Amino acid sequence: MTCSILYFFIYKRKGLVLARGMGNKLFALNIYTAIAFLGFYLSISFIPASISALLEAAAGPLCVALLSFRTNLENNKISINLLFPLLILLLGIIALFIQSPELSYKTLIGCVLSILAALGAALISIKSYDLSDISPHIILAHRFHLTWIASAFLIFGYYDFDLNKIDLPFTIALVFLGVVLPMYFLQKGMQKVKPMVTMVALSIIPMITYISESLIDGSLYMEIIVILLISTILSLFYILKQREK
């Protein structure tokens, strides 16, 4: 909701106008964003955030490859654009089994939600790339409506939410620095960079997430660090190769 309000005022102040015919495209982005955000944040109720981020990032490139299958087939790029995401996903699954060798029903639910979030993220990257001529301020002002409405319904209707227990100034600062500001750069990047490159770049994030979470709870698996390093190196190599084309 903070994103919607802030970027709405920014694009109005800049004198930008929402073009006719944009309603359906922004509505689609609302659905994809809700799938991505709610899928991820619900998944971490069942599995650790590091595992959820890892699965989402690992499955994201494969989702883009499958959604772009026809285009890749026509351009004779099916091998690299399908085999590489499969390799990244395989590394993610190996890391999952190392940290969670026993798959309970909660783990399975969390994994399904994470993969659903990956699908939403892939659809966002594809749609955003198609809207490269639209100001990111306009997109961010209207992209999150369904997400914050659904989130408010879950928080106040399902969870035992007490506003008095929240450090409001700290939360606002955290939302601004951790969501609102980075979201502008992410949205602008998605509109300029091909969807596959976007998702591959995002697959580097689990390395940071896993190390940060491990430092907090002390459960560090060196095998997972090695796998994430390999995944990160492969992702960087793929990005560099795409820049050369």
Silhouette: globular
Q: Could you give a short account of the major beta sheet?
A: none
Structural class by sheet pairing and helices? mainly alpha
The helix/strand series, from N terminus to C terminus, equals HHHHHHHHHHHH
Number of DSSP E strands = 0
- DSSP helix fraction: over 70%
Mean pLDDT: 81
Number of helices: 12
Distance between the termini: 39 Å
Give an overview in words:
The chain is an all-alpha fold and 245 residues long. It is 80% helix and 0% strand. Helix 3 packs across helix 6. The longest helix is centred in the middle third of the chain and has 26 residues, at 105-130. The radius of gyration is 19 Å and the shape is globular.
Which short descriptors sum up this protein?
mainly alpha, globular
Concise summary:
By secondary structure, the chain is mostly helical.
Write the layout of secondary structure elements.
Blueprint: H1 2-13, H2 23-43, H3 49-67, H4 69-74, H5 78-99, H6 105-130, H7 136-142, H8 145-157, H9 168-192, H10 195-202, H11 205-217, H12 222-244
Helix pairs in contact: 1-7, 2-6, 2-8, 3-5, 3-6, 3-10, 3-11, 5-12, 6-9, 6-10, 7-9, 11-12
